[in-house]
Amino acid sequence: MEAILSVRNLNFYYGDNRALKDINMDIYKNNVTAFIGPSGCGKSTFLRTLNRMNDFIENVKVEGSIIYEGKDIYSKEMEPVELRRRIGMVFQKPNPFPKTIYENIVYGLRKNGVNKKEILDEVVEKTLKAVALYDEVKDKIYKSALELSGGQQQRLCIARAIAMQPDVVLMDEPTSALDPISTMKIEELVLELKKDYTIIIVTHSMQQAARISDYTAFFLNGEVIEYDETSKIFSNPRDKRTEDYITGRFG
Ligand SMILES: Nc1ncnc2c1ncn2[C@@H]1O[C@H](COP(=O)(O)OP(=O)(O)OP(=O)(O)O)[C@@H](O)[C@H]1O
């Protein structure tokens, strides 16, 4: 299977606090990879290292390498803004801009100088369809995105991310602020999107990881304890700590 990201000997520090410890992991293309583990174990920190979102936090240090398309994303060869276009992100809380639905989706394109109406119209329609939001919002795409429900806003945020045609979409607990029906819609969407994108998702829900991911990494205290096919992690974990966590003995 083809790795789209190869993480080697990665350490990450907030000041003196080593939050990630010697992580090695290949993330496979057109798969869904889930990161699970108790609160504070480093899942979000690791997710953010993959598109250098941690650059915005002061007093941090990265050691090791993350290879994407043959280049280390922390080397000078990689432009962080371009990297984040290729490796997009969706956050825990839906965060649409206080603009119209239309302008939310085309925001990144406009920033890159794409302003041709026909192109933007096409992207809006295509991405709204891709996130299964088109039928619900087609009559109000020029209305404020803030008028949408939380679940719709989150699908819009996913549309905004994929409008940039990324390779990888990072999702940090994308359903934790949503009701069960909206959660189900996002889960269905993730399964649909993996045909075209590589998805990496942090989740607190083991059911969710089991339902939608192909690979699962179990984190504990900044380490990856076990990383394998999701079916193996949940049916036959190698490590006692993984087993204890997935059977609800801690965390
Ligand atoms: N901006 C920051 N500055 C300093 N320390 C941080 C920062 N963000 C996270 N940490 C620390 O790094 C460690 C890992 O946190 P992280 O948020 O990555 O864990 P997590 O597994 O995603 O947790 P949760 O499931 O609660 O979201 C924790 O000890 C946390 O306190």
Number of domains: 1
Which fold name corresponds to the CATH topology?
A: Rossmann fold
Largest sheet, order of strands side by side? Answer: 6-7-8-3-9-10
Helix tally equals 10
Q: What is the structural class?
A: alpha/beta
Arithmetic mean pLDDT: 95
As a percent range, the share of strand residues is 25-35%
Distance between the termini: 32 Å
CATH architecture assignment: 3-Layer(aba) Sandwich
SSE order, one letter for each helix or strand = EEEHEEHEHHHHEHEHEEHH
| Share of helix, binned | 25-40%
Strand count, sense and barrel status of the largest sheet are:
6 strands, mixed
CATH homologous superfamily title: P-loop containing nucleotide triphosphate hydrolases
Principal-axis shape: globular
Low-confidence stretches: none
Radius of gyration (CA) equals 18 Å
Descriptive terms for the model:
251 residues; alpha/beta; Rossmann fold; six-stranded mixed β-sheet; four-stranded antiparallel β-sheet; 10 strands; 36% helix; globular; binds adenosine-5'-triphosphate
Write the layout of secondary structure elements.
Layout: E1 3-14, E2 17-28, E3 32-36, H1 43-49, E4 60-68, E5 71-72, H2 80-86, E6 87-90, H3 101-111, H4 117-130, H5 134-137, H6 150-162, E7 168-172, H7 180-193, E8 198-202, H8 206-212, E9 215-220, E10 223-229, H9 230-235, H10 240-246
The protein binds adenosine-5'-triphosphate.
Residues 14, 19, 37, 39-45, 57 line the site of adenosine-5'-triphosphate.
Write a brief caption for the model.
With 251 residues, the chain is an alpha/beta fold. It has helices spanning 43-49, 80-86, 101-111, 117-130, 134-137, 150-162, 180-193, 206-212, 230-235, 240-246; strands spanning 3-14, 17-28, 32-36, 60-68, 71-72, 87-90, 168-172, 198-202, 215-220, 223-229. Bound molecules: adenosine-5'-triphosphate (ATP).
